[in-house]
Amino acid sequence: MAEYESVGTGEHLVFALNGWFGSATAWRPVTPYLDGTRFTYVFPDYRGYGARRDVDGEYTIAEAAGDVLALADELGAERFSLLGHSMGGSVMQWVLAEAPDRVRALAGVSPVPASGVPFDEQTRQLFDSAANSPDSRRAIIDFTTGNRYTGVWLDAMVAHSLGTSDEAAFAAYLRAWADTDFHERIAGADVPVKVIVGAHDPALGEPVMRATFAQWYPRLEVEVLAGAGHYGMDETPIALATSVESFLREH
User: What's the mean pLDDT when you consider all of the chain?
Assistant: First the structure.
């Protein structure tokens, strides 16, 4: 089984990195709307997720970024762009820190900042419990999309997460994206960056992006999707694909 999916045959290679609750297949709602003539999108799985669910690892941001760079080498890709959702936003920034000359542009969808994400004690307990509690996963997804969706959709999101992630990896990746602070490595980077956030995301919305990404990246653009919460791929796939590619076409 391949350890990544791909869409398109275009010259501009884009690695798309999923979030904590996702997998490489989490991008599928968006893929029908991508320009495969101009871009080639590669959707890799992290260790412990999806097609690599049985692959052991340390489950760190550094390891995930190293695997992206190794895959780029395997594909013969000297330069590429990165698209990262949530936890994938942290991974894409570590790739930039490791190989700034290889990165054409960064596009983040509700991305985790390179400083990590601080929690109050009660919220951290909820997130910590999500590794072995489907109810906690459901509560987190419901909260981060503005408590707007049916139980059927929430249950489907939880089922995807449970079915495509190893429990130990899932627990470790929380510590990785929430507690890893490497913003000093990327601050001031002269790379085009766009962050796309949902108006209904109370966790990683525009105020967080202004307080973090906007302080580090002088070439930052911010767009707010009015119809989305934290999961723009599922909530507003056409608008998300349009926003990402309008940015990437410039770079």
Answer: 97
CB atoms inside a 10 Å sphere around CB 232: 26
Whether the predicted pLDDT of 102 surpasses 50? yes
User: Can you give the pTM of this predicted structure?
Assistant: 0.97
Res 1: pLDDT: 42
